[in-house]
Amino acid sequence: MAIGIASSPDGRKKLAQLLDGAGTVVIVSTVDQARQFLDVVAPPPPESSESGLRIDSDRRVLCWLDREVALTPLEHDFLRCLVGAPGRVLTYERLHLEVWGNEHVGRGSDIHSMVRRVRGKLARLGVAATIHAIRGVGIRFSLQ
């Protein structure tokens, strides 16, 4: 599925022509409309007991089956946000407020750096999970 954003009717028409044949396409006028759409179509979260993925906040470790890996304070807070809302897109602004305690400013390199580190830790544990960056919107976490 692709989501296209174009503010003008002509822009949306051109975008529709460019994306013709690309599968499922949603074209909206604003980033806010795209965010609303993504929140509406998010799949329901899986049962946490089925996933086997657990965050031990007391020891600040990520647990998967019989394995665990230590987390930094920021990685812990970041993963708590993602694991607490699997399948939903968390906006960059929301992640910044909940993890860093400030408003999102800049290009988001801090979040993308965090995603890289967390992906590495998930891979070390062998967790079948993905963290997708939704360009211009935010981050989505899902277990497979």
Could you give the topology of this structure?
Elements: E1 2-5, H1 9-18, E2 25-28, H2 31-41, H3 48-51, E3 53-56, E4 61-64, E5 67-70, H4 73-83, E6 89-91, H5 92-100, H6 109-125, E7 129-134, E8 138-143
Parallel strand pairs: 1-2
Antiparallel strand pairs: 3-4, 4-5, 6-8, 7-8
Task: Kindly describe this structure.
- The protein is α+β, with helices and mostly antiparallel strands and 144 residues long.
- 43% of the residues lie in helices and 24% in strands.
- It has helices at 9-18, 31-41, 48-51, 73-83, 92-100, 109-125; strands at residues 2-5, 25-28, 53-56, 61-64, 67-70, 89-91, 129-134, 138-143.
- It has a 3-stranded antiparallel β-sheet. A 3-stranded antiparallel β-sheet has the order 6-8-7.
- Strand 4 and strand 5 form a beta hairpin.
- The longest helix is centred in the last third of the chain and has 17 residues, at 109-125.
- The chain is elongated, with a radius of gyration of 17 Å.
- The two termini are 18 Å apart.
